[in-house]
Structure formats: C-alpha cells, structure tokens
Amino acid sequence: MTDVPPPAPGADRHPALDLANTPLALTSGEVDLLATPADATRWLIKRGLAPSDARVYELCADRLRTLRDHIRGLLSAGVNGTPPKPADLEAVNAALTRAPATDVLRWDADRGLHRAAAHPIDQMLERALAVLAADAADLLTGPSAARLAACGSPPCRRFLVRTHAARHWCSVRCGDRARAARAYARRRETAS
Ligand SMILES: [Zn+2]
Question: How many whole angstroms separate alpha carbon 184 and alpha carbon 101?
Fold first, then answer.
C-alpha cells in the first residue's frame, strides 16, 4: 500500500490517535489498516503493544477495531465540542479498568527488582486495549486536547494534534489536495 500517508502529527506520541486513524479514506478508496488478524497483529507489534512473536486472532482483531470505533466517537465529540456518546465512554472505561495499563513491580532472586506484565501472555490483548484506552483518555484531557483536530481535507477522516494553529490537515498530501480544491472552486466562481 504505497498510498498510505505517513502517521498524522501527534500519532507518534499517542498510540490511541494512531489507532483512530487506521480506517483510511484515500482518494483511491477505503482502506482499513486493521482489516485482518494479520494486520492487527502487525499494528500491535509495531506500536510495542504485543511481543514480536504474537499472533492475534479474529476475535481479538475485532475487539481492537471495536475499541477504535469508540475512540473515534470520543475524538469526534472532543473536536466538535459535543457531549460524547455514553456507549463510547463505557467502552473506553471498560478497557481501562479490565487490565492494568502499566507493568507492575516484581522481585525475584535472579533479577532483583524489575517491571513485568501483570498478566500472563494470553492477556496481552487486554493490556494493549487498556494502554490504548488510557492514552485516549490522556489525549482527550491532557495538554494535546486543545490542539486535537479532524483533518479538513475530504475524503480524509484522520485526526491530528495540530503543531501550530493554522494547520488543519494530517499530511502534506491532504494539504495539497485541500489547496487544489479551493483553487478549483475559485476558478469556477470566477468563470461563472
Ligand atoms: Zn488528512
């Protein structure tokens, strides 16, 4: 998929933003970066949310996509300044509280004090969902919240954290397309 734009501003610091941006509306059509279990596995490994030998099955991929859709709902509400849907809040809170989002502190004679996952490996997905839900909550209430925006270049549906006030698109390509559309509209106006 050479078409896929680079991550939107803010997605490097916020895995929840990167998750929210996995359904892509490209000019060539819709692409879901989490369409298959293999896609979901790749995405989780790349974000450091699953070990490199992890394998996610459809049920888990579906849970990841479901949380994504709820996070998208919350981001939309945040951007538009509208009340969030109770179902979106519930889903994120359920993911937040089902598993600890951070590694716990452990001690054994060989390694001494160390951090390790609180749950066995089969609960890897619970932890990944908790981390993503916690990050969504941070994104919506932390210092980035005021700069959260939806890309203003249709058909793009990505979100971004604006690096400066004027920036309203998620990528150079979206900016170019928005400018071209504006120039085209101006030309039509002048012609008529
Ligand atoms: Zn965009």
Answer: 48
Structural tokens at position 158: 């990505």
Q: Which residues constitute the domain of residue 26?
A: 15-102+122-191
C-alpha 93 – ligand 1 centre gap (Å): 28
Centre of ligand 1 to C-alpha 5, Å, is: 8
Question: Domain total for the chain?
Answer: 1
Q: How far is the CA of 124 from the centre of ligand 1 (A)?
A: 31
Residue 66 within a domain: yes
Distance (Å) from CA 157 to ligand 1 centroid: 6
Residue 139 lies in a domain: yes
DSSP-derived pairing of the beta strands 159-161 and 23-26: unpaired
Distance of CA 151 to the CA centre of its chain: 14
Q: Flag whether 5 is in a domain.
A: no
Query: Tell me, what CATH number does 74's domain have?
Result: 1.10.3300.10
Inside any domain, residue 92 = yes
129 alpha carbon to ligand 1 midpoint, in Å?
Answer: 25
Cα of 160 vs centre of ligand 1, distance in Å, is 8
Asked whether 117 and 131 are in contact (CB, 8 A), the reply is no
pLDDT (tens place) for every residue of the chain, 192 residues total: 557 889 999 999 999 999 999 999 887 889 999 999 999 999 999 999 998 998 899 999 999 999 999 999 999 999 999 999 999 999 999 999 887 767 788 899 999 999 887 665 558 899 899 999 999 999 999 999 999 999 999 899 999 999 877 678 999 999 999 889 888 888 888 887
Token output for 64: 């990841």
How far, in Å, from the CA of 154 to the mean position of ligand 1? 7
